[in-house]
What does this fold into?
Amino acid sequence: MGTFILKMISNNKGQIRTIEAFLAISVMFSVLVLTAPMSSTPDFEKQGTLKKLGTNVLIELDNNGTLGRLIEGGNWTILKQSMDLLLPTGVFYNLTVYDENLQRVNTQEVSNTNQQGLEAVVIQYLCVTQSSDTRFYTIQLQLAWPQ
Amino acid sequence: MIVLVLSAIVSTTNTLRPLMNELPHRNDAERFQQLAQQLLLNEGAPPNWGSLRDVVPESLGLANAASSLPYQLDIDKVSRLNSQNIYSLSYSQLWQSLGVSDVSFRIEIKTLFNLSTTLISTTRRVNETTYQFDAYAEKSGTPVLARLHGYVVVRDYVSSFASSTSSNGHSSISVTIPNSVNGTAILLTFAKAESNPQIVAFNVYTFSHNSSEPLPNRTFTRLNPLNYVLNVTFTYPSEEVLKALVFTYNYNFSLNEKSRSAQTAEYDIPRLLDASPTLLVITGLNASSSFAEWVSYPQLPLEIGADFDQSDNGAKTISFSHIMTINSALYEIVTKWGRSS
It folds into this structure.
C-alpha cells in the first residue's frame, strides 16, 4: 500500500513537471508571436518624408500642365531628366504611368534604379491633361532611400 | 520554470527595446513634419508680413498669400530670411514667430542645380577684348543639359549671349567688350534645364575690363530688394550711379529711380512674368574707380537658423526636402529640425 502511494505521488510530480514545461513553452511561444511583428518596425520617419516629397514633386511638375504634356507627347527621357533634377540626390525612384484602362503607358523606364528589394513607398497621383480632349492618367511613383 | 520565464522577459525586452527607443523619435518626426508643412504651406500673420519691412510676423509662414496653389513661396518672405538684406529677420525673431519653444530649426533655399563659370582666356585687340568662359551646369556632380542665356555689364554697356550645355554639362561662352569702356565687368548667366523650363540656375562672375581687380560685392553698396523696390544704401557719399538694371532669363530693363538721397536710393523693380530668378545690378563711380554690384531677387542662396552641425547635445536632427515655386521658378528648400537643448 505504502509503495503504491509513493508511486502515485511520484507520477503526479511527473504530470506537474509536464504541465510546467507546457506553460513555459506557451509563454515563450506567445512572446515570440506577439513581438515578431514589432521587431521589424518600418522606418516611419523616412517613409513619411518620402511620401510627402513624392507628392510635392508630382504636384509641382503638374501645376502648369507640364506633367500631362510630357505624358501625352511620350517624352519619357525628358520626364526622367525632370525627376532627376527635382528629387534629392540619393533617392531612388521608379515612375509608371497608367491610362484610364490601367494599361501601362510609358514605353521606356522612368527610373534611376534597377535595384530590387528596396523598402519603397508608393505614391498614386491622378494627372489630368490640359489639352482639349481631357485625359486621365494614374501615376505610380515608387521612392526609396538606398539601404 | 523560473529560468524560462526570466529568459522570456529578457527576450521581450531585447525585442521591444528598439521600438521603445524609436517611439519618441517617431513622435518627433511627425511633429517636425507638421511644423515644416506649417512653415511652408501657411502664409503666417499678417499674411503679407514679407513686404512690410518693419513688421515681425506674429506667426511664421512663408507661403504666398496671393496664390491659391500649394507650394508657392512669397518672394519677399524668402528675401527677409537672408541676413544680407537690411530688412531681414534674425533667427531669434523667426524662432519666436514660429512659437514652438522646444524646437530649433534651419532653413536652406537654393536652386535645383548649380551653375559655375570660369574665365578661360582673354584676347585683347585694338578696339575690343574677347573673354572666353567655361560654364558648367551640374547637380551633385551629374551634368545637366541646359540652355544658357546671359549678359555682360560694364558701366552703361550691356550685351547678351546665348548658348547651351553639352552632355558633359559644359558650355563655352564668348563675350566681347569694346575697349572704349573700362571698369568692373559682371557676367550674369542663367541656365534653364532642357527638361523643365521652370528649373533655372544662375551664376554671377565679376572680372576687370581694362581696370584694376574688382573689389568684393557689397563694397560700395548694400542692395536690398523688397516689395518690388530695390533699396540701395551707398557706402561712400561721393558715389554716383551710372545704371540700375534688372535681368531675368528672357528680359533685361533699366530700373526707374523712385527716390534718391545722399546715402540711399530706391528703384522700382518690374514684375516680370518669367520663370527665372531676377538679378539686379547697379553700376557706378566712386571718385575715379567704377564699380558694378548685384543682388538676386529672391535673395538666394540662403541659410538661416540653428547650426546643427555644431550642436553636441546628441539630439536627433530631422531634415525634409521640398520643391517650392517662387515666381514660377522651382527651388529646393531643405528644413532641418531638432529639439532645443
Q: What stands out?
A: Residues 126 and 138 of chain A are 5 Å apart (CA to CA).
